[in-house]
Design brief:
3 domains; Arc Repressor Mutant, subunit A; 10 helices; LysR_HTH_N; 23% strand; D-Maltodextrin-Binding Protein, domain 2; DNA-binding; DNA-binding transcription factor activity; LysR_subst-bd; alpha/beta; 46% helix
């Protein structure tokens, strides 16, 4: 009988093109993936991987097996969902993907809440960009994913997935404290035509959105620095090396040398949680989605409390 974990390993190698990439996705070592493939080769009496330069390629037998594996793994996931729904218990394992700011701004509260309320459920968090996470949820590699898009740049949701809105996250312009426009109540993007910009890395969903938004306002952005991390972008702005547009979620406490100004008209990022349609019946999925909704309801309140606390500490130090 074919082992499901070994089929998952082969399927991941086929999807991501290497043993190391498959290991990263599955959350195990490259050695463990190689061992799973070797055992599967013995089970099937077939050579499944061959060396190709520095990597590997699938044999004809492996391609045949992968086509079956995709269907088998999908059917297993559906069967597990049906069993959980019948039991009505929040048990088992659940994997959640979230882009970095949601992983930092939402998921710690979610994971803590789920651990207390549902101790028989094991939940694992993985950081993943929405464009990567969506097909992985579709294939069953993740059970849930928090993704985002912008009102003027919607993210297509693949067939077979369902989504639920979590929160709308406004973006603000981040300026050095001494910037001539720092005291404005709000700013249009067209007023920033001569600025130097700090952005997410090229190809990132936020970098693409920033470039498109500025160009729609008649601004050809001069991006001088790239960073995937908000704290790094904020540090660069604080040093006077450029300006940025950042959503509130996951931004944390602002450095004292920067200020934020609302964008006019408002730029809003929409956050969703997505899952496979057949998983809707799983009590575990329902429980984690409920925990996410509860968490985002308090995110802004916690952010304002932290900002107030930081301001008080600064005043006390003076």
């Amino acid at each position: 009988m074919l082992d499901l974990d070994r089929l998952r390993a082969l399927n991941a190698v086929a999807e991501y093109g290497s043993v190391s990439a498959a290991a990263d996705v599955l959350g195990i070592t490259t050695s463990a993936v190689s061992q799973q493939i070797a055992k599967l080769e013995r089970e099937t009496a077939s050579r499944l991987l061959e060396r190709s330069g520095r990597g590997v390629r699938l044999t004809d037998a492996a391609h045949l097996l992968v086509r079956h594996a995709e269907r088998i793994l999908a059917q297993v996931a559906e069967a597990e969902a049906d069993l959980e729904a019948q039991r009505g218990s929040v048990v088992g394992r659940l994997s959640v993907a979230a882009f970095p700011t949601a992983a930092r701004g939402i998921m710690p509260r979610v994971l803590s809440d789920v651990a207390v309320r549902h101790p028989q459920l094991t939940t694992r968090l993985f950081e993943a960009d929405p464009k990567v996470a969506l097909p992985q949820v579709q294939r069953g590699e993740y059970d849930l994913a928090i993704v985002h898009d912008w009102a003027d740049s919607p993210l297509p949701i693949p067939d077979g997935l369902e989504k639920a809105p979590l929160v709308d996250d406004p973006a603000e312009i981040v300026l050095p404290e001494g910037h001539p426009l720092a005291g404005e109540p709000s700013l249009e993007l067209a007023a920033l035509a001569e600025e130097r910009w700090i952005s997410a890395p090229p190809g990132d969903i936020c970098q693409v959105w920033l470039t498109q938004s500025l160009r729609r306002s008649g601004v050809e952005p001069e991006i001088v620095h790239y960073s995937a991390e908000y704290p790094t972008q904020l540090a660069l702005v604080a040093a006077g090396l450029g300006i940025a547009i950042l959503p509130r979620l996951g931004r944390g406490i602002l450095p004292p040398a920067v200020v934020t100004v609302p964008v006019r008209p408002v730029l809003m990022r929409h956050l969703y949680v997505v899952w496979r349609a057949e998983a809707s019946r799983r009590p575990a999925v329902q429980a984690v989605v409920a925990a996410m909704r509860a968490a985002v309801a308090t995110v802004e309140e916690a952010r304002l409390a932290n900002a107030s606390s930081a301001a008080s500490r600064t005043d006390s130090a003076k």
